[in-house]
C-alpha cells in the first residue's frame, strides 16, 4: 500500500511548490492507515521529490531550493480537483457506472455542497463529466473512448495457440492482469509465444506479428516455464514501448542480456534469498531458533536461494534436500512418460510422496520444518495424518496456496497482486522505474 501511494502520487501532474493533499485526505482516498501514508510521504521526502513544512503540510519540490519562496497555496476547488483526479486514476471511480451520490461525495471529500456543485459543474463544462438528471454525474463516454488503449499480455503457448496455466500462482497472475486492464480501461490483447516454432499466436490460433499491433502502449510478459528466455525476449527487442517482464528465472540471468533496453523492467518475487530471509525473521520472532529445510527440488536455484535466505536470517538450518529434480514439473513430466494422461497429476504427486517419505525418514522433529513450497508441506501434513511421522513439527511452506488454507498451515505469500500492480505502473511512460530489476517482497500469512 505504501508503494501504491508513492507511485500514484508520482503519476500526478503538479507544479513545483504545489501543496499535496493532507495526510487525512490521503488516508481517505487510499483507505490506508496514518502510518502507511506517513511512510510513503517520508520516502518521497528522502528522495528530494517533496518537502514538508511543520503545521502546513507537504509540498512538491526540494525545500532547499524553495526555502526563500512561499509555497503556492491551492484554492479549495483546486484541492478538490486534485483529490478527485487522484481517486479516479487509482480506480476508485469507474466509467461503467455513475459517480457516488452528492451526499456521498460531500462526505468523502469533507467539502460543502456549494463547493462540490461548483466543481462538478466546472468538470461538466469541460466535457470530463456527464450528468443524469440534476444530481447524478458520470465520467463522459467520449473521454472514456479517448483513453482506451491496448496492452499486450504475452505468455507461452502450444503450437496451436493453446495456453494452460500450470500453477495456482500463474492463474492468479493472469486473472489479476485481466482485472488490472479492465479497471484502467485498457484493451488487453493476449498473445502466445511458442518456443519450438518461434512464432506469435493469438487466442484464435492464428500466427501473427508484433509489428501489426500499432496501438500498443506497452506489454506485460510472463517468462514462467519459458525454457530459453534469451531468444524469447530477443524477439521483443524491437518494441518501442515499455515492457514489464515477470522474471521467473535466476536473477543473474537478465543482467548481461538486455542492459540496453531502457524501457524494460524486470519484476522478481520468487528468486533470490529475500523470501528465505523473511521466512527466517518470521520464525525467529516466534521464538524458533532451529529448523529443518525440506526440498526435493534442490537442483533449482530458487530452492538453493531459499535455503541461503534462511541461513542468512540467523536460523540454525538442517537441510534435507534432493538435487535430482529442479521443479514440480519434473515429476509431472516423468508421470506423463509413464502412464495415461488423465492421471498425470495423481501419479506425479504419488512419485513426490514416495520421495519425501525417504527424505524425511531421518529428519529430527525439531522446532519447525520449512518446506520449499506448499505442495511439499501438504504432502508432509498428509503423511502425518497417515501416522508416517511420529511427532508433528510446526510445518510452514512457500506459496500461500489454497491448499495451505485447506490444511491450515502458515505460508509465505509472494504478493502476486503487488507484482501485477507494479507492472502496470511501469507501462506509464511518465513514471518509468529507475531500476531494471524490481524486487517484490511478500509476507507470511498465518492460518
Structure commentary:
With 447 residues, this protein is α/β, with parallel strands linked by helices. It has four domains: 1-75, Winged helix-like DNA-binding domain superfamily/Winged helix DNA-binding domain (Arc Repressor Mutant, subunit A, Orthogonal Bundle), CATH 1.10.10; 93-146, Arc Repressor Mutant, subunit A; 148-269, Rossmann fold; 274-413, Rossmann fold (3-Layer(aba) Sandwich), CATH 3.40.50. The chain is 40% helix and 19% strand. It contains 17 helices and 18 strands. It has helices spanning 2-10, 23-30, 34-46, 63-66, 76-89, 102-109, 113-126, 141-147, 168-183, 229-234, 274-285, 301-312, 328-337, 344-359, 374-385, 402-406, 416-426; strands at 50-53, 57-60, 129-132, 136-139, 149-156, 186-194, 199-202, 207-208, 216-222, 243-246, 264-268, 290-295, 316-321, 368-371, 394-398, 410-413, 437-439, 443-445. The chain has an eight-stranded mixed sheet with strand order 8-7-6-5-9-10-11-17, covered by helices on one side. Strand 7 and strand 8 (207-208) form a beta hairpin. 31% of the residues are buried. The model is unreliable at 65-72 and 429-434 (pLDDT under 50).
Amino acid at each position: 500500500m505504501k508503494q501504491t501511494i508513492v507511485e500514484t502520487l508520482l503519476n500526478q501532474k503538479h507544479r513545483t511548490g504545489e501543496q499535496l493533499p493532507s495526510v487525512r485526505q490521503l488516508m481517505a482516498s487510499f483507505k490506508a492507515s496514518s502510518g502507511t501514508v506517513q511512510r510513503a510521504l517520508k520516502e518521497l521526502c528522502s528522495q528530494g521529490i517533496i518537502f514538508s513544512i511543520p503545521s502546513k503540510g507537504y509540498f512538491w519540490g526540494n525545500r532547499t531550493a524553495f526555502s526563500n519562496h512561499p509555497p503556492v497555496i491551492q484554492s479549495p476547488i483546486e484541492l478538490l480537483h486534485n483529490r478527485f483526479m487522484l481517486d479516479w486514476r487509482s480506480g476508485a471511480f469507474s466509467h461503467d457506472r455513475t459517480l457516488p451520490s452528492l451526499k456521498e461525495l460531500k462526505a468523502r471529500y469533507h467539502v460543502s455542497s456549494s463547493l462540490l456543485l461548483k466543481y462538478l459543474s466546472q468538470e461538466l463544462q469541460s466535457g470530463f463529466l456527464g450528468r443524469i438528471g440534476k444530481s447524478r454525474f458520470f465520467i463522459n463516454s467520449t473521454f472514456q473512448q479517448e483513453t482506451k488503449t491496448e496492452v499486450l499480455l504475452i505468455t507461452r503457448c502450444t503450437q496451436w495457440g493453446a495456453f494452460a496455466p500450470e500453477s495456482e500462482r500463474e492463474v492468479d497472475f493472469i486473472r489479476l492482469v485481466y482485472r488490472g486492464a479492465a479497471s484502467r480501461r485498457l484493451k488487453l490483447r493476449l498473445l502466445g509465444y511458442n518456443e519450438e516454432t518461434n512464432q506469435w499466436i493469438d487466442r484464435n490460433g492464428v500466427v501473427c506479428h508484433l509489428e501489426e499491433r500499432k496501438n500498443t502502449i506497452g506489454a506485460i510478459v510472463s517468462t514462467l516455464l519459458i525454457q530459453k528466455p534469451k531468444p524469447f525476449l530477443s524477439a521483443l527487442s524491437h518494441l518501442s514501448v515499455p515492457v514489464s517482464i515477470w522474471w521467473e528465472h535466476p536473477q543473474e540471468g537478465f543482467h548481461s542480456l538486455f542492459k540496453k533496453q531502457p524501457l524494460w523492467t524486470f519484476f522478481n518475487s520468487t528468486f533470490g534469498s529475500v523470501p528465505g530471509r523473511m521466512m527466517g525473521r518470521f520464525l525467529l520472532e516466534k521464538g524458533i531458533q532451529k529448523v529443518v529445510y525440506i526440498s526435493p527440488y534442490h537442483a533449482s536455484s530458487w530452492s538453493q536461494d531459499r535455503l541461503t535466505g534462511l541461513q542468512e536470517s540467523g536460523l540454525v538450518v538442517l537441510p534435507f534436500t534432493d538435487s535430482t529434480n529442479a521443479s514440480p514439473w519434473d515429476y509431472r513430466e516423468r508421470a506423463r512418460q509413464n502412464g495415461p494422461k488423465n492421471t498425470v497429476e495423481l501419479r506425479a504427486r504419488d512419485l513426490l510422496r514416495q520421495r519425501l517419505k525417504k527424505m524425511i525418514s531421518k529428519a529430527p522433529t525439531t522446532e519447525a520444518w520449512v518446506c520449499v513450497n506448499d505442495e511439499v508441506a501438504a504432502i508432509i501434513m498428509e503423511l502425518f495424518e497417515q501416522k508416517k511421522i511420529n511427532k508433528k513439527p510446526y510445518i510452514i511452506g512457500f506459496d500461500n496456496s489454497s491448499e495451505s488454507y485447506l490444511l491450515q498451515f502458515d505460508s509465505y505469500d509472494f504478493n502476486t497482486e503487488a507484482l501485477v500492480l507494479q507492472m502496470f505502473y511501469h507501462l506509464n511512460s511518465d513514471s518509468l522505474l529507475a531500476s531494471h530489476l524490481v524486487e517484490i517482497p511478500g509476507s507470511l500469512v498465518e492460518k
